[in-house]
């Protein structure tokens, strides 16, 4: 199949592929994205298509597999769990209205307390606040994962104690 024949066959399936993408995603924009990604993969892997086989089935398989892979990737991203105990988050009653954290603490006071910590606690905690994952911090600081988690936990406890006078 020549490049022109391949492109014409691909464009000839566009409406049917869009309908199939809509049945998979149930969203017009996501269906358009899936169609575009399918076309890109088909064009990229054109050399993988075996002559005298079912072209339509090949394209539909690409779309189905792309959809499944994207779905799995999204589910995994939503369910990423690093094994840490996240009980450190504030345990507020749902029926009370609480003021924002800014009303209790000035950011200067919080930063002052963080900077007053020893480096072994301050560095991992600041990295955590900057968005690094526990594993990334452990790798960058050449520390065991458990040590990083405990230092961040103890830093939270130290800050909670140091800032307690501002809480009420």
Automatic annotation (TrEMBL):
Source organism of the structure: Sunxiuqinia elliptica
Family the entry assigns: Belongs to the sigma-70 factor family. ECF subfamily.
Stored PANTHER family: RNA POLYMERASE ECF-TYPE SIGMA FACTO, RNA POLYMERASE SIGMA FACTOR RFAY-RELATED
Cited InterPro entries: RNA_pol_sigma-70-like (IPR039425), RNA_pol_sigma-70_dom (IPR014284), RNA_pol_sigma70_ECF_CS (IPR000838), RNA_pol_sigma70_r2 (IPR007627), RNA_pol_sigma70_r4_t2 (IPR013249), RNA_pol_sigma_r2 (IPR013325), RNA_pol_sigma_r3/r4-like (IPR013324), WH-like_DNA-bd_sf (IPR036388)
Molecular function via GO: DNA binding; sigma factor activity
Pfam hit, one: Sigma70_r2
Domain of life: Bacteria
Protein name stated in the entry: RNA polymerase sigma factor
Domain RNA polymerase sigma factor 70 region 4 type: 111-159
UniProtKB keywords: DNA-binding, Sigma factor, Transcription, Transcription regulation
GO process terms (BP): DNA-templated transcription initiation
Residue ranges occupied by any RNA polymerase sigma-70 region domain in the UniProt entry: 14-74
